[in-house]
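ingest -> validate -> predict -> emit
validate: passed (alphabet ok, no gaps, 249 aa)
predict: started
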Amino acid sequence: MKPRFFIFVPLLIGFLLAIAIPQLSNGDRRDEHYKAEREKMVATQMDWRIVRDGRIGVKDKRVLEAMRRVLRHEFVPDSQKSHAYSDSPLPIGYDQTISQPYIVAYMTELLKLKKEHKVLEVGTGSGYQAAVLAELVHHVYTIEIIKELSESAKKRLKHLDYENVTVRFGDGYYGWEEHAPYDAIVITAAPDHIPPPLVQQLKPGGVMCIPVGGRFQIQNLTLVQKTADGSIKTKQMMPVRFVPLTGKH
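emit:
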């Protein structure tokens, strides 16, 4: 008969190895998978050193880091999570979409944001653009005209600890005068003209990024700059396609 310690030793070694080598739970594996997907998203879809096919790459390191940090898969329906970091917009219900990651990054870079800035977003959707902005500025005020999306975005952003985002249900065409003026304004749905109330609520020296064009027209992503004396300059940046801005206007 073999001594018992010969049987015990392999079992002891196996136990020691088990506690010495970190074991990843299913949740940890998913987190690592999504982290890798975000890195891939930034590298292949937006980083100016790597992107191809004539796309205007994003150079702002703070914006790229924000895109790496924000958990995009938390802002899409369960049926879309496997596509969360793909190079395309995705449906979020109510005939609305979450914007293509590259467009989110590019529009955010155009705003030239600083940590102390206060930003207004029109069109909260699932809250993804607001989360990206919140990584970069002091406070984000965001308006959503679809009540169900507004309520779910508010809960989602709170759950993800974005305490510097305030969500409101309402018609974003008229802005949010209570907290104006804003250093920057971003609109994630397309009106057929630039809303005058939003121009009025933009701080002198501030910028607005807005897609302009009707449902059946060519939409152009437009950069609106308000000079120190209050005059307005506009520049068309690229053709885009967004859902239409809705409301009483």
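The mean pLDDT is 89.
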